[in-house]
TrEMBL record, chains A, B:
GO cellular component, one term: mitochondrion
EC number(s) recorded for this UniProt protein: 5.1.99.6
InterPro entries the UniProt entry points to: YjeF_N_dom, YjeF_N_dom_sf, YJEFN_prot_NAXE-like
Single Gene Ontology BP annotation: nicotinamide nucleotide metabolic process
Annotated source species: Babjeviella inositovora NRRL Y-12698
Entries under Pfam families matching the protein: YjeF_N
The keyword Protein biosynthesis is assigned to this record: no
This protein's UniProt keywords: Isomerase, Metal-binding, NAD, NADP, Nucleotide-binding, Potassium
Residues of the YjeF N-terminal domain: 1-206
Source organism, top-level taxon: Eukaryota
Protein name as it appears in the record: NAD(P)H-hydrate epimerase
Catalytic EC class: isomerase
Classification lineage: Eukaryota, Fungi, Dikarya, Ascomycota, Saccharomycotina
Length: 219, 219
């Protein structure tokens, strides 16, 4: 999620996370895909995931989240975890390096990649290298939903490494990033919070939302 | 809007205001009701209105707002106004006591009452007495949408004064307040942010939302 002039992080993340949850609902409804595992990084991309996780619970899913490096710098992140606890959404405590983690993944119907966002730059530190490797191998062939950009992709160039995450669905936030042209799966735009004037000023061309929808399908 | 455990005001107000905007869209679409005048009080009910005002702009309306007593205690309120300015949403500067105010009202297709909420208690201070009188007379017969509770109603008893606002639509937030049993117009519930456990704990019985909807029609 990009910072957008005039909003607080709380506001933006709330709308971004809501959009991610709604896009997941439209593609993988709770009847067929009730169990959603969020893989959460330490920055804003992770925060969007934590918000989406809560909204999915409200939409009838059984979400859980793995959040190995918790953000202690920004108080909002602690509040987001408090909210998840109030919703009785379980935090996965099994480490990616434990044998038991396979079981955790096996139980999930969808894996959400909210690890790194558009401002990520290498190197990838542990345990995120192992998490991304797991998503690249995707040995149980689960649908992977990436938030804003697939983790590890370069915001402009896309999958710069020989081996990169290939999500089944991408939810771009505010505007599709240049790398999304390299993405061929199900693509949604969410984060309906910039005015026509701001879009024009920053030369953002994006598909139009319809009605009260907070997400729109791109392809 | 009631305070809800674990959330920040920014988060709650964003979701509440979004719900108000969506309920307005469902009842009074922008094609037939493009011009919306928000009458904004100094507290959280007013803040919900300021957020809804911005979302209506994103939904294709031409909203404007009259906000005679601005909240200077809570920094969020100033941010909400900054956001409205960035969206080029006009603030009405004509006072309710000026002759020109009639023109302002005449141009509106909908009047939104986000003046006082559930915690209001008399006396009503100026200029809010005059604004509420105007809404009671409603001489141009405009649809009135009240946020959470009609301003001046008692949260339990409803329209305790002989003469009270009779809105055409009410958007209850989090849960319908007891006074809403006295309301016979179009009634929506919004503010989808409490878990089933919390609803049970506080004995909140409310209709169920469907799909990804952030509002549900009660009657």
């Amino acid at each position: 999620m990009s910072p957008v002039v005039g909003y607080s992080l709380d506001q933006l993340m709330e709308l971004a996370g809501l959009a991610v949850a709604q896009a997941i609902y439209k593609t993988y409804p709770p009847e067929s895909h009730p169990n959603v595992l969020f893989l959460v990084g330490p920055g804003n991309n992770g925060g969007d995931g934590l918000v989406a996780c809560r909204h999915l619970k409200l939409l009838g899913y059984n979400p859980s989240y793995y959040y190995p490096k918790q953000n202690r710098k920004i108080p909002l992140f602690e509040s987001l975890q408090t909210q998840l606890a109030l919703f009785k959404i379980p935090e996965v405590k099994t480490s990616i390096n434990d044998d038991g983690f396979k079981e955790v993944v096996l139980k999930a119907d969808i894996l959400v990649d909210s690890i790194f966002g558009f401002s990520f730059s290498p190197p990838i530190r542990e345990p995120f290298g192992s998490i991304i490797d797991m998503l690249i191998r995707n040995e149980f062939d689960k649908p992977i939903v990436s938030v804003d950009i697939p983790s590890g992709w370069n915001v402009d160039e896309g999958p710069v490494h020989d081996i990169s995450i290939q999500p089944s669905m991408l939810v771009s936030l505010t505007a599709p990033k240049p790398c999304s042209l390299r993405f061929t799966g199900i693509h949604y735009l969410g984060g309906r919070f910039i005015s026509a004037e701001i879009s024009k000023k920053y030369d953002i061309t994006a598909p139009e939302y319809s009605g009260i929808d907070q997400v729109c399908r791109i392809n």
